[in-house]
Each structure stands twice: as structure tokens, then as C-alpha cells.
Amino acid sequence: MAEADGDVLLEVKGLGKRFGGFVALEGIDLTIATGERLGLIGPNGSGKSTLVNCLCGTLRNETGTVTFAGKPLNGLIAHERTHLGLARSFQLPKPFHSMSLVDNLRIPLLYTVNARPHHHLTDAAIAERCATLLKDVGLADKARRRPRDLTQVEMRKLELARAVATEPTLLFADEAMAGLSHSEIEEILAVLLRLNEQGITIVLIEHIMSAVMSFSTRLVVLVAGHKIADGPPQEAIRNPEVERAYLGE
Ligand SMILES: Nc1ncnc2c1ncn2[C@@H]1O[C@H](COP(=O)(O)OP(=O)(O)OP(=O)(O)O)[C@@H](O)[C@H]1O
Ligand SMILES: [Mg+2]
Predict the structure, then answer these.
(1) Is the CB of 47 within 6 Å of ligand 1?
(2) Is 46 near ligand 1, meaning CB less than 6 Å away?
């Protein structure tokens, strides 16, 4: 099994999560290096979103340890993890519907900036960062619009921008492309690649295999709450256990 090269950003050891008697995740070990583009795949219900929820602090794992940028995360609640540099976009976008796009970014950005008392930013600097972020995701011309004015692909871009507004070092993009056309998928991939080039480590959770394969420098496969493969994408998908999980016995 391949391990991440380079600086370790996130280290997960023996993570387990139950819902009542149901074991959603068991014995998950995972290392993510700074700068990686990691694809996280697995059949429906295999535990991908649950893993993201445990790492970002919206769910509590019962077993295991998580270390992020050298700091143990166990016991930290979601917003404390956000302030350390962990961000995620949701499978179903969750914008502030009554606010303009620029305000949808200003809120998470202020939230992050205000947590750093020695890094005060002027209103003009905040506005500039929001504008840059909207430009990065291709929504510069919609700054004053509301989320309801957006197409589906634009809504996904806004969801990513809202996550990136917290200035993360690690971003989990949970099914940011489901239901999009081929060209729209390419647009989202281009956004994610740009963010990665800007230094954000990205975990892409996705069922669209062509997108996962073109984006990922490493692939992790979950099946029924267990990690069954971890390595170079072409090797991981040829793993017999992975083939069985996807194609059936
Ligand atoms: N809050 C919860 N309470 C009870 N069971 C849950 C909860 N969240 C998830 N589950 C169950 O845990 C399992 C893993 O769900 P999860 O959402 O992590 O899967 P996933 O890999 O993200 O699937 P998909 O590809 O469909 O998004 C599923 O069986 C799901 O029904
Ligand atoms: Mg999911």
C-alpha cells in the first residue's frame, strides 16, 4: 500500500465510526501529504462522507486518532478544525440564500480572519479577497446575484468558493460534480486544479471515474467502511478487491 510522500499534512490512525450497531468505518489508516490531489472513491454507503464528517468534526469517531498539521484533532469541534485549515464542500450545496454571492464568501472569510487577532484586514482587503475568489471559480460577473440566480454548475462553484473562503490548507470536495454535463465537469476540475496549484491539498470524493482518474495523484478506495486500496490511481483500480466491489462477484 502506498504511503503519501512529502510533508505529512493529515494522519489518520485506526479511525472507527458506528451508528448504533452499524459499523460505518473501521480501522481507517490514512496519510495525506501537503499538496496532494487524493481521490477518495467507493460504492454508495461505503463511508466516504462519514469519513469527511469525522475528520472535519461534524461527527465524532469512537476510535482512532487524527493529526492535522502536527496537531491532534481529537476533541476539537468543527469550527476549531476550520480555523486550523480544514474545509469541506457539501454534497448538497448549503449557501446563505438571502445573501449575495460576495456576502456568501465574506461571512466565512471574516470568520477565519477574525480568529486571527494579529492579522486584521481592512474592509477593502476583505472585498478584494472575495472578488479574487469569485474570479478564481469563474463567478466574477455574478458577485451581486443571489444563489437562486445560479445554474447548477455555478452553485457547485459557489459551494467550493465558500469552503475556500475559510483559507484552508486541506479541502474535501464531496461530490462537487454529480449531475453535471461533461463540459461542466471539466469546469469544476479546472477550478480544483487551480486551487491545488495555489497550494491547497485536495481530497476529491467522486463517483465520476473519468474525473477522479484525471484529477488524482493517488487513489484511496473504501468499501463497506474499510480501506481496501491506497496507491497510484491506475494500480488502485486494478486491485482485484476493488474490481469485485465495483463489478460484483
Ligand atoms: N447520521 C447517520 N446515521 C445513521 N447512519 C448513517 C448516518 N450517516 C451515514 N449513515 C450510514 O453510514 C453509511 C455510510 O454513509 P456515507 O454517507 O458515509 O456513504 P458515502 O460513501 O458517502 O455514500 P455516497 O456515495 O452515497 O455519498 C451508510 O450506510 C449510511 O446510511
Ligand atoms: Mg457521500
Answers:
(1) yes
(2) yes
At residue 114, the pLDDT reads 85
The packing angle between helices 101-114 and 123-136, to 10°, is 120
Any ligand 1 atom below 6 A from CB of 28: no
> Is residue 116 scored above 70 in pLDDT?
yes
Which pLDDT does position 1 carry in this prediction?
46
Find out whether the beta carbon of 19 lies less than 6 Å from any atom of ligand 1.
yes
Rounded to whole angstroms, how far apart are CA atoms 185 and 177? Answer: 6
Q: Which domains does the chain have, with CATH numbers?
A: 1-85+168-249 (3.40.50.300), 94-167 (no CATH)
Residues in the chain: 249
Is residue 63 exposed (0-12), middle (13-18) or buried (19+ Cβ within 10 Å)? Answer: middle
| Atom 2, ligand 1: residue with shortest CA distance | 19
Instruction: Report whether 210 contacts 188 (CB < 8 A).
Output: no
Residue appearing with cell numbers 477593502: 124
* Closest C-alpha to ligand 1, atom 29: 45
Give CA–CA dist 219/217, Å, rounded. 7
Residue 149: per-residue pLDDT: 96
- 8 Å CB contact between 131 and 76: no
Express each pLDDT in 148-186 by its tens digit: 999 999 999 999 999 999 999 999 999 999 999 999 999
Q: Cα of 51 to ligand 1 centre, how many Å?
A: 9
Closest protein CA for atom 7 of ligand 1: 19
